[in-house]
UniProtKB/TrEMBL annotation:
Superkingdom of origin organism: Archaea
InterPro entries named in the record: Aldolase_TIM, Indglycph_syn_Halo_TrpC, Indole-3-glycerol_P_synth, Indole-3-glycerol_P_synth_dom, Indole-3-GlycerolPSynthase_CS, RibuloseP-bd_barrel
Pathway in which the depicted protein is active: Amino-acid biosynthesis; L-tryptophan biosynthesis; L-tryptophan from chorismate: step 4/5
Organism: Natrarchaeobaculum sulfurireducens
Residue stretches making up the Indole-3-glycerol phosphate synthase domain: 15-239
Protein name: Indole-3-glycerol phosphate synthase
Length: 260
């Protein structure tokens, strides 16, 4: 664990809860749906690869949506989503392992488990195709990346700056997400992705995360080298008034071909 001195209070309390959360029982063994194949299929079909996130609420969201997670995911796939991310963190994001299970049953695309994983036993809570590991919050990243792969997960390692990128690469990550939101003030700056992306080797699959809300943002992240984008709020309609999940998704997956 790196320093916690610069964390927003909400993040500090998320971590405190995450550290205590028990792991699953039996060791999971996943027959994962490949993200890189899904990205290739989207590109071939002329769609921007978007990982759409089922996020009922968050520390920065206005309000909560408690729609059926499987219905939300189906609407996202209908709008052209390449993969679905599901928050499983219960206390601050309104997530659950059960909602991920329902989503993975309902759609054919790869599903990412989004949580604050701190130790190996927490990998066994639920099956998913992809698993988020946040570089800053994991003590032994290399060991957790390996433990995730042994179970069949494709680990997505999240970084926020070049130093964390370095640790992700040293840990053997080949799927890396750059989070545009800082964990100190919870503010979003798309320049974060642009600055970190220049240091990422070509053989890494690179995902731009957070704060992407318009077709223009999509184009900006693609120009900076994003193979895919992770989008939650702009699709979930946290406060935007746009409640049509399929339309919200389509607007971004068609950002390079649409007329906006
Ligand atoms: O809602 P946004 O700004 O589109 O962001 C989605 C996603 O990137 C964000 O939810 C996220 C990025 N990293 C995380 C780690 C844990 C929980 C959530 C996140």
């Amino acid at each position: 664990m790196n320093s916690e001195t610069e964390l927003a209070p909400a993040v500090a309390s998320i971590l405190e809860a995450a550290r205590e959360r028990p792991g699953g029982g039996d060791r999971v063994s996943v027959d994962a749906r490949s993200l890189s194949d899904a990205i290739d299929r989207a590109e071939a079909a002329g769609r921007v690869p978007v990982v759409a996130e089922v996020k009922p609420t968050s520390p920065t969201a206005e309000g909560t949506r408690d729609d059926d997670p499987a219905a939300l995911a189906e609407a996202m796939v209908e709008g052209g989503a390449t993969a679905i991310s599901v928050l499983t963190e219960p206390d601050h994001f309104g997530g659950s392992a059960e909602s991920l299970r329902q989503v993975r049953d309902a759609v054919d695309v790869p599903v990412l488990r989004k949580d604050f994983i701190m130790h190996e036993a927490q990998l066994d809570v639920v099956e998913a195709d992809l698993l988020l590991l946040i570089a800053r919050f994991v003590d032994d990243l290399e060991a957790l990346v390996a433990a995730a792969r042994e179970r069949g997960f494709q680990p997505l390692v999240e970084v926020h700056d070049r130093a964390e990128l370095e640790s992700a690469l040293e840990a053997g990550a080949d799927l890396i997400g750059v989070n545009n939101r800082d964990l100190a003030r919870l503010e979003v700056d798309l320049g974060t992705f642009e600055s970190v992306a220049t240091e990422v080797p070509d053989d890494v699959t690179l995902i731009a995360e957070s704060g992407i809300s318009s077709p223009e943002d999509v184009r900006r992240m693609r120009e900076a080298g994003a193979n895919a984008l992770l989008v939650g709020s702009a699709i979930m309609d946290h406060g935007t008034g746009e409640t049509d999940i399929t339309a919200n998704t389509r607007r971004l997956t068609q950002a390079t071909t649409g007329d906006e």
